[in-house]
Amino acid sequence: MIFRSLASSSRGNAYLVTDTDTTILLECGVSYKQLEKRTGYQMANVAACFITHEHKDHCAAAGQVIRHGIPLYASEGTARALGLGEAEIIVPGESVQIGALRVMAFPVVHDAAQPVGYLIDDLRTRERLFFAADTRGLHYQVTRPTYIAIECNYEESLLERSERIPAMLKERIRHSHFEVSDVIRWLHRQDLSSVLTVWLLHLSAGNSNEEAWMRRFQQEFPGLEVRICPE
């Protein structure tokens, strides 16, 4: 299984997962033109797209994805919030199989209609990807993950000191996004013995520090490969 970030920030999110035979898109939060460009004009090879919620930086191209004949999966609440009657509804706890990739949605905490994350299994290799984008926190104990792609949005001390963010927006961020210390605590509760890579998603441009965070993750999880998804 290959996980690839096409975009990862508040300006837009999009990620590819492929087993080389089947490719799916997680999120489509940039324009369709940008999706074409960033996939090397290979959107025709995308078998399906799964979005987590209705915020534009995760679903900006949803309508175009559908118009180009790519099945787009979303929770019922997300599809309703976007007015996408053509969307395929995925029910949390139930799985959808695309080629040899089995995708199961699970609920997350975020300020959206019915936000979800995704657990993706490669039925041939037994690899497993746990994917959670925008969320306030997670209470899941993930069984046998091979890859973890998880939001790591902000650092409380940086957010608190920020003078450009209004107090109301700071509170919204605190109640809807994953803070770096909370991510670390969540990872420590997981069995990471089979994990090959942890991907950190959706870093805030003004409230994160990539270099300091990488040093911190290396200290907390020696020997574990941790990567920050580029914007």
Could you explain the architecture of this structure?
- The chain is α/β, with parallel strands linked by helices and 231 residues long.
- Helices cover 25% and strands 29% of the residues.
- The protein contains eight helices and 13 strands.
- It has helices at residues 32-38, 56-59, 62-67, 76-82, 156-161, 167-174, 180-188, 210-220, and strands at residues 2-9, 12-18, 23-26, 46-50, 72-74, 88-89, 95-98, 101-107, 116-122, 128-132, 147-151, 197-201, 225-228.
- The strands form two sheets. The protein has a seven-stranded mixed beta sheet, covered by helices on one side. The protein has a six-stranded mixed beta sheet with strand order 1-2-3-4-5-6.
- Strand 9 and strand 10 (128-132) form a beta hairpin.
List low-pLDDT spans: none
Count of strand segments = 13
Largest sheet: 7 strands, mixed
Q: What radius of gyration results from the CA coordinates?
A: 17 Å
Class inferred from helices and paired strands: alpha/beta
What distance lies between the first and last C-alpha atoms, to the nearest angstrom? 22 Å
Order of helices and strands: EEEHEHHEHEEEEEEHHHEHE
Our estimate of the beta-strand percent is: 25-35%
Oligomeric state, counting identical vs distinct chains: single chain
Portion of residues within helices: 25-40%
What is the helix tally? 8
Q: Judging from the principal axes of the Cα atoms, what is the shape?
A: globular
Mean pLDDT: 97
Describe the strand arrangement of the main beta sheet, using strand numbers: 7-8-9-10-11-12-13
